[in-house]
Structure formats: structure tokens, C-alpha cells
């Protein structure tokens, strides 16, 4: 390959300088790791409550939000190392860690690769990967296929029945509308998004979960169609002494379906201090 051909690839790779991050509140550090395609602001509903007790640290994945352009391909190991870079930049030796969806996969790798950095762990609406993964139902798989050909706005609207519970859709649709408005304001590099999808698909921590020794709480919506609850149950069975909390009537975005879950998570973290 000629030098002229290589140069643009090197410039793209070198453009990524690490994740942008923010902090709010005082107290023990709590690192929040967002879901697929979401930036640190996706925790807008939860940050105020957590910040009453903790120093809440959020960050934007590579290629998302305020973080710069990123290499096209990455793994959950890479994203876990990004999380460690954020802790380093924030001057935090060890932290409480809460990962949601893809963020839960990243949190698993963080706890396995850098165990001294994790005081306690909450894994929300996530899976361990590998052959034991329970896939979404056929209707949700069909949506995921169609969504690739939709605009971002159309895909977000079409996702509603697949990521929110029926009760929230019927009784508190304004919460869903607020979520969609937040997402409309988000910057996302399409190449980075494809890289994050690949990282989620390739994630496989199941065989190593038994090595996680941080106190762990697994949280999952009873009606999660995107990542069925069987995956959360499997994680809770495999991590030693992990607790499992299933949220009735909640889908994948359980914190929108049932915001009171943040209080349960805060109490768990307080117990772990």
C-alpha cells in the first residue's frame, strides 16, 4: 500500500483524542456508562438524583456527543479502557459503576480488565454475550433490520414499542416524548455507531463473569424485548453473590418506564460504601 493511500487512514485514527466527560455532585464517585449510540447526557433523568449522594461522572463514547471522531471499529475492551481514561482524568482511583445496555457490557469488561477500579457494579438491561445469549423476539429483530433504512427520527419513533413497556406508553407518554427530544439533539458519527454495534455483537464475557468480585446488582425490565430478561437472569446466576432486580411492566428503557428504580440503585451503592 502506498504512503498516499495510508495517510487518510492514519489521520482518521489519530483524530480520536479520548472521551469527553463531565461530573456533577459531591461524594463517592459514580461512573455512568451509557447505552448504544447514547452520550453522557442520556443520563439527564437520573443525574440530579444520583448527584445528591455521589460525584456522578458521565462520558461520551468515541464518535458520540463532544468526543472526537473515532476509529471505525472498536470492542467493549476498547470502550472499557476509555472508561478507565475518564477515571484517570477525573482523578478517581476506584468508582461505583453503573452500565446500561451496551454500557453494561462495557462495565463487565471494565470489572474484568481493571478490577481495582470498580468498587461496586450495577448492570442494567444488558447481556454477557456468547452462545448463551437469548436473542430478541422475531418482531424486534425485524424492526432492527428495517431501522437501518430509516432516518434517525423515523427509527426512534418505530423503536417505541420495542424499548418501552406498555404501561408507560399508555399512561405516561410524555416521558417517552422527552426521551425522543433529548435524542434529537445528540451528535452521532454513523461510522462510530456501526463500530459500537459491532462491539456489542462481538461482546462475550460469559465465561469470565465468575471472576467479577465486586458487589453486583443486575437490573432488568420484565418486558424488555430488545435484550430479554433471561440474559439478566443468566448474568445474576453467574457472577458470585450478584443480586437480581426485575422491574414489572418495564421494557428496555426501564428508567423511563419506572424512574423510581434510581432510588433502589442509589441504596445499593450506599450499602457498598
- Name the structural class: alpha/beta
What is the number of E strands?
A: 7
CATH architecture call: 3-Layer(aba) Sandwich
Helix content: 40-55%
GO molecular function, one term: triacylglycerol lipase activity
Keywords: Hydrolase
InterPro entries: AB_hydrolase (IPR050471), AB_hydrolase_1 (IPR000073), AB_hydrolase_fold (IPR029058)
Organism: Solirubrobacter ginsenosidimutans
What does this structure look like?
The protein is of the alpha/beta class. The chain has one domain (3-271): Alpha/Beta hydrolase fold, catalytic domain (Rossmann fold), CATH 3.40.50. It contains twelve helices and seven strands. The protein has a seven-stranded mixed β-sheet, with helices on both faces. The chain is globular, with a radius of gyration of 18 Å. The relative contact order is 0.16.
What brief labels describe this structure?
alpha/beta; 7-stranded mixed beta sheet; Rossmann fold; 273 residues; AB_hydrolase_fold; 44% helix; globular; 12 helices; disordered N terminus; 7 strands
Outline of the structure:
Keywords: Hydrolase. With 273 residues, this protein is an alpha/beta fold. The chain has helices at residues 3-14, 47-51, 76-89, 102-113, 138-147, 152-163, 166-171, 173-184, 190-202, 229-238, 254-257, 261-271; strands spanning 21-24, 29-33, 55-59, 95-100, 118-124, 216-221, 243-247.
Amino acid at each position: 500500500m502506498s504512503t498516499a493511500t495510508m495517510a487518510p487512514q492514519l489521520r482518521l485514527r489519530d483524530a480520536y483524542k479520548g472521551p469527553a466527560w463531565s461530573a456533577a455532585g459531591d461524594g463517592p464517585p459514580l461512573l455512568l456508562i451509557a447505552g448504544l449510540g447514547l452520550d453522557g447526557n442520556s443520563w439527564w433523568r437520573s443525574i440530579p438524583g444520583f448527584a445528591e449522594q455521589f460525584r456522578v461522572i458521565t462520558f461520551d463514547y468515541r464518535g458520540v456527543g463532544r468526543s472526537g471522531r473515532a476509529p471505525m471499529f472498536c470492542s467493549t475492551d476498547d470502550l472499557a479502557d476509555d472508561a478507565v481514561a475518564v477515571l484517570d482524568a477525573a482523578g478517581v482511583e476506584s468508582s461505583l459503576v453503573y452500565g446500561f445496555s451496551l454500557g453494561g457490557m462495557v462495565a463487565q469488561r471494565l470489572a474484568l480488565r481493571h478490577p481495582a477500579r470498580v468498587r461496586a457494579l450495577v448492570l442494567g438491561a444488558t447481556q454477557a454475550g456468547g452462545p448463551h445469549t437469548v436473542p430478541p423476539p422475531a418482531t424486534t429483530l425485524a424492526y432492527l433490520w428495517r431501522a437501518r433504512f430509516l432516518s434517525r427520527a423515523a427509527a426512534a419513533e418505530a423503536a417505541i414499542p420495542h424499548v418501552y413497556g406498555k404501561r408507560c406508553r399508555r399512561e405516561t407518554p410524555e416521558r417517552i416524548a422527552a426521551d425522543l427530544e433529548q435524542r434529537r439533539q445528540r451528535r452521532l458519527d454513523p461510522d462510530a455507531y456501526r463500530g459500537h454495534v459491532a462491539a456489542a455483537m462481538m461482546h462475550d464475557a460469559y465465561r469470565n463473569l465468575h471472576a467479577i468480585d465486586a458487589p453486583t446488582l443486575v437490573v432488568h425490565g420484565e418486558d424488555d424485548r430488545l435484550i430479554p430478561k433471561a440474559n439478566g437472569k443468566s448474568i445474576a446466576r453467574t457472577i458470585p453473590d450478584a443480586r437480581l432486580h426485575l422491574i414489572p411492566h418495564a421494557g428496555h428503557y426501564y428508567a423511563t418506564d419506572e424512574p423510581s428504580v434510581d432510588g433502589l440503585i442509589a441504596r445499593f451503592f450506599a450499602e457498598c460504601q
